[in-house]
Amino acid sequence: MNDRPSFDTGAVPVAGEAPRQHALAGFWFHFSENRGAVVGLAIIAALVLVALFAPLIAPHDPGEQFRDALLAPPAWQQGGSPRFLLGTDAVGRDILSRLIYGSQFSLFVGVVVVGIALAVGVTTGLIAGYFGGFADAMIMRVMDIILSFPSLVLAIVLVAVLGPGLTNAMIAIALILQPHFARLTRAAVLAEKSREYVTAARLAGAGRLRLMFVTILPNCLAPLIVQATLSFSNAILDAAALGFLGMGAQPPTPEWGTMLAEAREFILRAWWVVTFPGLAILITVLAINLVGDGLRDALDPRLKRS
Amino acid sequence: MVRKTVFAAASVAAMLLAGTASAKTLIYCSEGSPEGFDPAPYTAGTTNDASSKTLYNRLVEFEKGETTVVPALAEKWEVSDDGLEYTFHLRKGVKFQKTSFFTPTREFNADDVLFSFNRQRQKDSPWYQYTSGVAWDYFDSMDMPNLIKDIVKVDDYTVKFVLTRPDAPFVANLAMDFASILSKEYADKLEAANKKADINLAPIGTGPFAFVAYQKDAVIRYAAHPDYWGGKQPIDNLVFAITTDPAVRVQKLKAGECQAAPYPPPADLAGLRADPKLKVEEQAGLNIAYLAYNTRMAPFDRPEVRRALNQAINKQAIIDAVFQGSGQVAKNPIPPTMWSYSESTVDDKYDPEAAKKALEAAGVKGLKMKVWAMPVSRPYMPNARRTAELIQADFAKVGVGVEIVSMEWGEYLKKAAEVDRDGAVILGWTGDNGDPDNFLGVLLGCAGVGNNNRAQWCYKPFDEIVLKAKTLSGQAERAKLYEEAQAIFKEQAPWATLAHSTVFQPLSTKVSGYKMDPLGSHRFDGVDIAD
Amino acid sequence: MVQFIVGRLLYLVPTLIGITIVAFGFVRVLPGDPVLLMAGEHGVSPERHAALMAQFGFDRPLWEQYLDYVTGLLQGDLGQSIITKVPIANEFFSLFPATVELSVCAIVVAIVIGIPAGVLAAVKRGSWFDQTSMGIALVGYSMPIFWWGLLLIILFSGILQWTPVSGRISLIYFFEPVTGFMLIDSLLSGEKGAFASAVQHLILPTVVLATIPLAVIARQTRSAMLEVLGEDYVRTARAKGLSPLRVVGMHALRNAMIPVITTIGLQVGVLLAGAILTETIFSWPGIGKWLIDSIFRRDYPAVQGGLLLVALVVMAVNLTVDLLYGLVNPRIRHR
Asked: The domain at A103-300 falls in which architecture?
């Protein structure tokens, strides 16, 4: 029953191409064994395609108002027409087209937020872990402070300060997500710092920056990658929640959470304006989490499922 | 089928209630928490519904369902010939409410009137600043501190207001919420106990209902005032169930969890009307939603440009998509239910072609402008964002590019008032006292530039007429002047008048005696509920 | 142990100071101001505006305001709401029980369902139960709960009409709050049907709020169990012929609980964040909704006090978890 894999992050030496390729192949082998993860990956690939080719796929312009078809129901329901497959919203915009364009925002939010959080979190984590002492204490205290507020509360206040909008929402979410990266990196650096290969590199005269980013960092990647996928889905959820509270992307942007917020008043009358954007969020987040699970299992099954 | 069983469950619950106490209880799903229970420091209708309308009376009041002023705590009043002295004769035998926290020993008299007003105007009164941050915004904004020279107690039941200048809307102002009469005896008791702030938490008044309990953000409970001077109310208990989400209010109404709820989302009206347990009353709101150009900025400083843009707006589309039909296109700056409303005004016809030509004729090409959309829903405008999007699409058809601007509501109000504001702003107004000056003078007079006059529009011929009308006391004479003013307004077009919203009031069919208030408040005096 | 606790507490002091600075700082840089909001369309004269701002103390240098704020805090004074003029502490603690009641119910539901499901899934690894329950858990974990809440309202309150739409208890019941917890108060009141009504009102919000913690706990329990089941001592116990129930119950579960307790502790932050959305959707009169409303109303002292108190709650819970952890796992103490 012991299912520990042969692949162990801590022991992989940073060396030539051959072992790296071997590692990749091993990783893919483990990853592709997980059916869910493959399905998730396929959904994400499809989403990326949809986002990239939105102008080609979408039947209508997401902002075009068809004033003769306000709140038209989906095609299969009585009163619906094939012109608007998933119906229209209060000012007659095609919901399907808005969802298609909305995928751009969700993926964009995920990428940017994770990018910022990763860059900031990893850098601060490296500094804290590598230098230790005062820098470490200061940085970790700041992270403690950020983490002692419930994430959404802090994001909401931040957005209130910066002003509502997608950009500010992304900044706020990145800020609340980055302590996780900082903590992970710091812990990994502390574990790696005293290992032989680091000492060897140091003795060989490697500079501090090189030691931090080139020697140590690649060996802390596994948990960071897993955390990044988790953060990706959290970023999408939080951005949608902010949009829902009226503090994220502003209408008429076809961001899914914002669409939900606009649709709330029609909850009793037009179920489709409420249902579809939420479903889109759920499917996207689910796909990313499936991939995240697969990544974790493939990279390092000892990492806790949480 | 399922509906039936649940309804049955609800009736069982109702029977249980009837079993425990045969009291009549009316539950009203109110739209928000009151800021406090002293009406004067606040201007929000939500607060006044929970305080001034239920707990208090005023010297004069608006007749239920009307904007006419009728006697209340004052039985009658006289105005001196120069229009500077108003003498009020107070009603005798009016009792304050007796509650768990206060038992009155005397009846209402002139001291209560003096107390209620003087605390808002005498800076040395211990009640002027009874708890930190108290401000008398409504009193101030109606210019009462400058208008009232003195308030004199002639005897226990006679009070004289001395004014600095004649002012036609003065008596109507005294019917407003800030003029509610509080108990001086109670105030003295609180002051002695050094608990002045309690007047805002545990209120005592002469009104139809007495305060019982308030659980923050959840529920306010009232009981009928047994010795009310107008007679005890038909219902025994009045409950405000605070429900901020409009869709949730509708669901609670349908589920029988409350018997009345304000501001239903327009999208749900059809469903409410179809429900046999409910009835929906409606009334034109005393309000206006407008798009105010900045008339000090080129090219909006030219009336022909403003008129051309007005022609380009499809107002009916706004009524359909934003108001979901619960409004009417506005042609005048005052609502149709207000006296002096000019029927003869001809509205700009929606005609993009003509608008395009007019813009070209005016030499305006490739115009880019900003349209400001407020971030909140207001009674006169359910969704300014959506309105702005529609205007954006309309203006695009005549070659005008629109950028929609929005910001935090407080910022919005402040920046919209600035004289050098860039762009046209969507905003509106709900009448305070049913007087046309409350619209035409306050919103469009020269004195309001840089403040409530969001078009920054100062046009002498208009201003003179409106100022003159305010000093006259005959309504017919005034109406004539206001109609002239409306004609000038239409010709000059500082605003695009967008809509007057219709106010809807869904009620349980068991409720009787409810009358919608054109001024937008919710009153439960005289309301009954069948078992 | 005492040393450990004291150490932990001392460690929190700088964080605490940081939190007061953050709470104070944010509020100072919030755009917009309450005076303008309260005046609405009527507006307010510049003089009046300045006078009011001075009254609230907003015109003084920042550091002076901060010192005042901290001095007040040390005396237990969080300031006064600008809107209602009521002390923040009163507002907070009058609403806090509602949030606690909801959160406790949610976490109990999450634990009671999540742990057994996780254990069973681990023991029957690869079975249909494992796959289905973990599939559901992943969906729950991916759920945008604000949308989930709306769907449940449409279905159970709208179409089926099984549950009440919002609020904490039917308004036909009226009793003075004793504890502030509606479940307890309704029992104390002795009114027939009151308790049932309170429970009915709790169901949907609890389900919504419990969704994510439930998913997280089930997943965490499963993986912790799997790990423990693979350890040598468990295998030894098995080899010795102990019954599977004993192995799982006595040995594995106890050790697997350590990471699960941490996870549960971490859910408190998640719960409070979730409470904001849940309370908004269900008009639940708790602090989540109050905090949002205060932000929108620019009620500075309320936002400031609310942020601080919420952070304190999170810290207190984390500290408790830390201490519990220290008790369960003595190795930690001497680190």
From this structure: Orthogonal Bundle (1.10)
